[in-house]
Amino acid sequence: MKFLQSIPCGVLATVLLAGTANAAWPEKTITIIVPAAPGGTTDMSARLVGDKMSKTLGQTVVVENKAGAAGIIGSQALARSKPDGYTLGMGNVGPNAINYSLYKTLPYKKEDFKPITLVISVPNVLVVNSETPVKSVSELVDYLAANEERRTFGSSGKGQSPHLSAEMFLQRIKQTAQHIPYKGAGPAVSGLLGKQYTFMIDNLPSSMPSIKSGKFRALAVTGDKRSEQLPDVPTMKEAGIDNMVVNAWFGLMAPAGTPDDIVSKIQQAAKEALGSEEIVSRFKSLGGTPGGNTPAEFGTFINEQQALWADTVRAANLQMQ
Fold first, then answer.
1. Higher model confidence: residue 41 or residue 201?
2. What is the pLDDT of residue 289?
3. Reduced to 3 states, what is the DSSP secondary structure of residue 113?
């Protein structure tokens, strides 16, 4: 009681009101900013987990796509949002790990975000249009070497893991190719369906429907083991490409300054959603593994990923404005 008496009335009122507001959260719609176009893994995972979280939190969770500039536009929007728990972001390896070493300047910094939880991790997959006359990684390497005009690859955007994975692949096979970036995985998939470029190393979930339908041919996955969903597709190592293990990841982020108790509520709602039979089954069908770790664990993971990709960017001698 003496402690409370020593606090000025105005300050005490502010503290009490803040505590009451946090305790009542959420009282309105929650928005998840997706820094990519509809149709990609970032978008799909956000919609799946958001729908489940809305039932636990008792409020509608909507997805707002803000695509462009390798996830920079959407990430900047999140960084500038009010830290009250009503605006979240679906962070991923591109804007929240690769970009810090790839770009000379960014309109945001890693301290602008507060990690909540990992949502899904997935391997990437090397795909070509099924009408392309190659059926293996070695045949693709020979095809690119023999056809200069076909040395093109697409991606969901500059700086995203599909872009850097393809650059890594080209380094391994000692070739170069023109990069054709799109504003998200959905448009990139459409581009390959339209034979606008030769190959892509995509996040597995966004290419899986086209693989299953026979429109894409999967040549290799970038995980350390074969995908349960594509048991006949070799790993890069099995296909003869060493030191090519890459996994993409996607997770919920909040603006820095979001109260810890609200972040905890979001993490618990997400963890419950990610443990549901429906989400586990859906993610498995996409070749992904559900997350659900704590904010501290997710923060440590992001720091490790930033260091890992910084080494990759340096080795590739890549730098963007």
1. 201
2. 92
3. strand
Within 10 A of 109 (CB to CB), how many other CB atoms are there? 10
- CB distance 304 to 249 below 8 Å: no
Strands 61-65 and 87-92: unpaired
Return the CATH number of the domain spanning residue range 123-221.
3.40.190.10
Whether 303 and 122 have beta carbons less than 8 Å apart is answered as: no
Give me the DSSP letters along 280-300: HHHHHHTT-EE----HHHHHH
Is residue 184 very low, low, confident or very high in pLDDT (cuts 50, 70, 90)?
confident
Whether pLDDT at 20 is above 60:
no
pLDDT in tens, 106-126: 999 999 999 999 999 999 999
Q: Kindly tell me the sign of the dihedral angle through the C-alpha atoms of 258, 262, 264, 269.
A: negative
User: 245 in helix, strand or coil?
Assistant: coil
Q: CA angle 184-41-129, nearest 5°?
A: 65
Residue 66: which region, alpha, beta or left (left: phi > 0; alpha: psi -120 to 50)? beta
What is 2-121+249-316's CATH number?
A: 3.40.190.150
pTM strictly above 0.85: no
pLDDT above 80: residue 321: no
Residues in Cβ contact with 217 at an 8 Å cutoff, skipping those fewer than 6 apart: 127, 128, 129, 130, 132, 134, 135, 211
